[in-house]
Amino acid sequence: MAASYHARSNSLPSRQHPIVSQIDENLNRLRASQSASTSSLIGHNLSGLQDLHECVDVLLQFPLTQQALAQEKQREMVEELLDGSLMLLDVCTTAKDALSQTKECTQELQSILRRRRGAEGLANELRKYLTSRKAMKKAICKALKNLKHIQNKLSTPGENGAVISVLRDVEAVTISVLESVLSFISGPEAEPKSSRWSLVLKLMHQKK
């Protein structure tokens, strides 16, 4: 860690600056829990990711940081990071839409049960739900491929300044957290028919 601070000292605020320490602490904390697979842990990581990006926003306001990013030799890397950020925003939109869609379909199924429209109505809504899930998984699969594309670019070696190195680290951790979120939303690779009916039974139990 000391070596990391030393390497960054030429173009970042001094190692004593709280924001530099906070960024490193948040990065290490998120790296330690990258394999989160439960809703509570994923929620915790998303909260930590928000804290990390808030620290980065502060860092980017420093004149020293802005001078480093404005250097001609850093232009290509800055543009690459900006492109990656735009792709990450698209991935976040996909995750948000997937969650909203899943919630809406589940509520429709619960509504059918409450109105007692019978097995036929429930079967129709279940088919809609499964069709929606299929489309959602397709969108998530595409988003995961986009994340992998960004990740591959980040792994490309090159001469990076201290600020660029920090931003690349932040982007890498962001990708990892979003991958876990998307995988959690998507669920198992294949959903057997038995799991579909277990959903119905669960909804019926909630109705009671």
Secondary structure blueprint with pairings:
Blueprint lengths: L1 H7 L9 H15 L6 H22 L2 H7 L5 H41 L2 H37 L7 H25 L6 H15 L1
What does this structure look like?
The chain has 208 residues and is mainly alpha-helical. The termini are far apart. It has one domain (2-207). Helix 2 runs antiparallel to helix 3 (39-60). The chain is built from 8 helices and no strands. InterPro entries: BPS1_pln. It holds the Pfam family BPS1.
Residue share in helix? over 70%
The Rg value, from CA coordinates, equals: 22 Å
Overall tally of domains: 1
What is the β-strand count?
Answer: 0
InterPro entries: BPS1_pln
A few lines on this structure:
This protein is mainly alpha-helical and 208 residues long. 81% of the residues lie in helices and 0% in strands. The chain has one domain (2-207).
Keyword list:
81% helix, mainly alpha
